[in-house]
UniProtKB/TrEMBL annotation:
Name of the top EC class for this enzyme: isomerase
Protein name per the record: Inosose isomerase
Name of one Pfam family that matches: AP_endonuc_2
Domain Xylose isomerase-like TIM barrel residues, every copy: 87-323
Organism: Novipirellula artificiosorum
């Protein structure tokens, strides 16, 4: 049986690389891919000096404007339709899809809804558990992942997120071999469907049972061992952003980076995951984004906010604050 429990909330409830113009639904019919147009941002330039500064900063600004998304884990109690409406009306242009919500709403309905809302799918979460840490056999976990690859292809998701699974009393080398074997099987199918897989490192203070892969270096090692252009990684600032070595690793990470998830916290993860509002914690989000821009990361930014610190807030308040935070960062770029 598929274990839908999330590492974020336990028990609660692809993009193609070849720009193909069609995608196969589960019923065998073909549909044209919705091509979302992204407009250029207008900027006033009072002097040649200001123009130079703005041109230098424009890449990170356009990434915020054009590929900013919200993970459905941030609004877990809302329906799929409520998510899509709330994100789109606030100016977000992407959505990180959570598989239980997709299963409840239905694949074909989801595709129609997101087309109407002009929302692209930045990620599909998640597959994994190959070490048996969630009670599934290896073959069952791989079969579930292959099913998710097909869903990701139909959604034209930017990436399918992969969690390694806990070490589960295995020696580390055995757990690593098991993960690499699973990734090779899955990526062979993903290549056929044009779906990118992204391995996500999870901080050991809050996710040992979900992943024995905990840092950027070990994640890169696995990505390079498997050796497929369709396998990359996710950088979640909540899990790796407070690591002093994270920024140092970014030049090596960016060529393999499929998704950046934005999360903040008041302290290093310990126990249950607990993200605070963006800007209220100690994750150097601005510095990370500036470094990513310097090394030409042009992929999506997906906000994921969940935990005790944000529970008192309504989802409307959470989304409004998130949009305002990004706008303030953009405004600082635009200032002379």
């Amino acid at each position: 049986m598929t274990n839908w429990s999330s590492p974020e909330v336990k028990g609660d409830v692809c993009r193609t690389c070849d720009n193909s113009q069609k995608r196969i639904f589960t019923n065998g019919t073909e549909v044209r891919i919705l091509l979302l147009e992204t407009g250029k941002l207008a900027r006033s330039r009072r002097s040649l000096r200001k123009q130079t500064i703005l041109d230098e900063d424009s890449k990170i600004q356009e990434a915020w404007r054009n590929t900013l998304a919200v993970s459905q884990l941030s609004t877990l109690r809302w329906s799929f339709a409520e998510d899509a409406h709330a994100y789109a009306t606030r100016g977000f242009t992407g959505i990180g899809v959570y598989r239980p919500k997709l299963e409840d709403f239905g694949l074909d309905r989801t595709i129609e809804l997101l087309a109407e809302a002009s929302l692209s799918v930045t990620s599909l979460s998640w597959v994994g558990g190959f070490t048996g840490s969630d009670g599934r056999a290896f073959d069952d976990a791989v079969a579930d992942a292959i099913h998710a690859v097909r869903d990701a292809a139909n959604l034209q998701a930017g990436t399918l997120i992969v969690l390694a699974g806990g070490q589960n009393n295995h020696i580390r080398n055995h757990a690593r071999r098991t993960l690499c074997d699973a990734l090779r099987e899955i990526v062979a199918v993903a290549e056929e469907f044009g779906v990118r897989l992204s391995l996500e490192p999870i901080h050991p203070g809050c996710g040992d049972e979900w992943s024995f892969v905990n840092d950027l270096q070990s994640t890169l090692d696995i990505v390079e061992t498997v050796g497929s252009p369709y396998l990359g990684l996710v950088l979640d600032t909540y899990h790796v952003g407070m690591d002093e070595d994270a920024v140092r690793w970014l030049p090596d990470v960016v060529p393999h980076l499929h998704l950046v998830q934005l999360g903040d916290a008041r302290h290093s993860p310990l126990g249950e995951m607990n993200r605070c509002l963006l800007g209220d914690g100690c994750v150097p989000i601005r510095a990370i984004l500036e470094t990513l821009r310097e090394y030409h990361y042009e992929g999506p930014l997906e906000v994921e906010l969940i935990g005790e610190d944000v529970e008192p807030l309504s989802y409307d308040e959470l989304l409004d604050h998130t949009k305002a935070f990004i706008d303030r960062m953009t405004d600082r770029v635009e200032q002379p």
